[in-house]
Design goal:
The complex is a heterodimer of chains A (201) and B (344). Chain A is mostly helical and 201 residues long. Helix content of chain A is 76%, strand content 0%. Chain B has a domain of 140 residues. In chain B, a hairpin with a 7-residue loop joins strand 3 and strand 4. The chains are: A mainly alpha (201), B mainly alpha (344). At the A-B interface, helix 5 of A face helix 3 and helix 5 of B.
Chain lengths: 201, 344
């Protein structure tokens, strides 16, 4: 009888072990996937910027510096983002580098948008307005996928540190995933880009 | 973490309720059918107690089959039928900047909520309103009126889409779509039967010939006829009760996706102040919309009438809750806005 009870307890423990292990692995993959999602959006932003700059160049002989800054920030962001193994968690250094480079890019884009807003005739030329909408949308998607990444990474980190699961964490090869912190002060202050279509009333 | 548990529980509850809805629907049809047969049988037995005639419950078999067919078709093309009833067109190839912006906003919310990008439909109606329909997270659709696109700012539009994404993520859409399809089916059938007089003349004649038939038959007959008449009313009341609490939850989810409760609050204010009814949306789909398309007057107040008969909670309460959320956020972040700044 007591042997049966022991057997039952052992079986329950094995089941729990498998469950906890698989839970951690699945969360880890979710974190990696969330990072990939950010990557997709960042790439789209890098692809859109040359078009915007090209469109703006002809119309704005002034404010050359703003454009140059955007280009420089984009190029350094591309080098910072490149690399990273497939299906693996990003290293702490990778996250920090990407966050810093993309933060700079966001800030310089914000300045460019502010310039565009200041010159209505500029907004009317070519497809600048359309490009601006696309870029704003991409910025939002980056922000939302960053939210998703941070939320998932936090869940993963909490799970592997909490008590019973922490026993399995080593076995599952779990280590803390680094969060995407907003480091750049320029990005912290919200760049207000108002794209709202005026209410038709 | 608790949030994901809640989400799972919410989805499970919606799956379960959808199942019960379909079972209840089938049972109701079985009662209409086999109940009618039973009454016929009793009446026949009372009329000729000596010779029990051969009896086949054709009414029960036919009505149960009809019910099953309706339930199946609700599953097969419920979402499509709901969309078709509003005259919506799918936005496949966005042309104008407005349409481009709508598609972008939906994609942003899809990223934020982790729901696969839903289909986007536009209803040609000047009143601002929106709803989501579908049976699973994947392959759902969001429909917005032209009025919504015209009236709201980008942030407000985003908040409204976030609300609809919340309904999809919770699987509210499954329950609501099935309900809309089944309510429509019951209303149609019951109206047809009660108006065409199938319940009236013929029955009474047979009963007269059956010389009374005993009190049990009379009672059953009355209950049976009453269930035909009450069916559409009951179905509509159900649609009413099922949707109210969900609106608060979807509002909260929108705030979570956009991290900006104030934009939904101001969107709701604008929708509330556009006072024309949404003509393209009928009673049967009213419970699915972000704001009650028919009885906007009812949700305007906070009194008992609004609570009893609105498919939606009072707007003022929803807006107040969102503002409270925004206040909590600001308190946590320590960033109260400048009171002189114009509000969005």
């Amino acid at each position: 009888m007591s042997a049966l009870v022991l057997l039952a307890i052992a079986a329950a423990m094995v089941f729990w072990l498998i469950g906890a292990y698989n839970g951690l692995i699945s969360l880890k993959n979710q974190v990696a996937n969330a990072w990939k999602q950010i990557d997709v959006q960042l790439k789209r932003r890098h692809d859109l910027i040359p078009n915007l700059v090209e469109a703006a160049k002809g119309a704005m002989q002034f404010e050359r510096q703003t454009l140059d800054e955007v280009i420089a920030a984009r190029n350094s962001a591309i080098t910072a983002t490149s690399g990273g193994g497939a299906g693996d968690l990003p290293t702490a250094q990778m996250v920090a580098q990407t966050a810093a480079a993309e933060g700079k890019l966001s800030a310089s884009l914000g300045r460019l948008f502010a310039v565009v807003e200041a010159y209505p005739q500029l907004k009317a030329t070519g497809n600048i307005a359309a490009l601006q909408e696309e870029l704003t949308s991409t910025e939002n998607k980056i922000a939302f996928s960053r939210q998703l990444y941070n939320d998932t990474a936090t869940e993963y980190n909490t799970k592997q540190q909490q008590f019973p699961t922490s026993l399995v964490a080593g076995m599952a090869g779990a280590s803390a995933a680094s969060l995407w912190e907003i480091t750049d002060a320029a990005e912290r202050e919200v760049v207000k880009v108002d794209l709202s279509l005026p209410p038709k009333k | 973490m608790t949030e994901s548990v809640n989400l799972f529980a919410q989805q499970e509850a919606n799956r379960r309720r959808s199942r019960w809805l379909v079972i209840g629907f089938l049972l109701f049809f079985a009662w209409l059918g086999f109940g009618g047969d039973f009454i016929r049988y009793l009446a026949a037995k009372n009329a000729h107690p000596d010779q029990p005639a051969a009896f086949f419950p054709w009414l029960g078999v036919v009505l149960t089959l009809v019910g099953a067919w309706m339930a199946k078709s609700a599953f097969d093309n419920g979402p499509r039928r709901v969309l078709a009833s509003t005259g919506a067109r799918e936005l496949l190839d966005p042309q104008t900047p407005q349409e481009r912006q709508l598609v972008n906003v939906v994609e942003e919310m899809s990223v934020a909520s982790g729901v696969p990008r839903p289909g986007i439909w536009v209803i040609p109606d000047p009143d601002p309103n929106a709803f989501a329909t579908g049976l699973e997270e994947k392959g759902s659709s969001i429909a917005v009126t032209q009025g919504l696109i015209d009236t709201l700012s980008r942030d407000e539009l985003q908040a409204v889409i976030g609300h609809e994404m919340g309904h999809i993520k919770n699987l509210d859409v499954r329950l609501m779509t099935l309900l809309a399809a089944l309510v429509g089916a019951i209303t149609l059938l019951a109206n047809f039967v009660t108006r065409s007089g199938l319940l009236g003349g013929g029955r009474r004649d047979r009963e007269d010939r059956g010389s009374g038939g005993g009190p049990l038959v009379i009672i059953l007959l009355v209950v049976w006829v009453v269930s035909w008449v009450l069916a559409p009313i009951l179905a509509n009341l159900m649609a009413l009760g099922v949707s109210r609490d969900r609106e608060y939850l979807a509002d909260a989810m929108s705030a979570q996706f956009t991290r900006n409760p104030m934009s939904l609050a101001s969107a709701l204010e604008r929708i509330e102040h556009a006072d024309a009814p949404t003509k393209s949306i009928q009673r049967g789909t009213a419970h699915m919309c972000i704001a009650d398309p028919v009885g906007r007057r009812l949700t305007g107040g906070e009194g008992g009438l609004a609570l009893l008969f609105g498919t939606h909670p009072p707007m003022a309460t929803r807006i107040a809750r969102l503002k409270a959320m925004a206040y909590q956020d600001m308190k946590r972040a320590g960033t109260f806005p400048n009171p002189d700044a114009p509000t969005a």
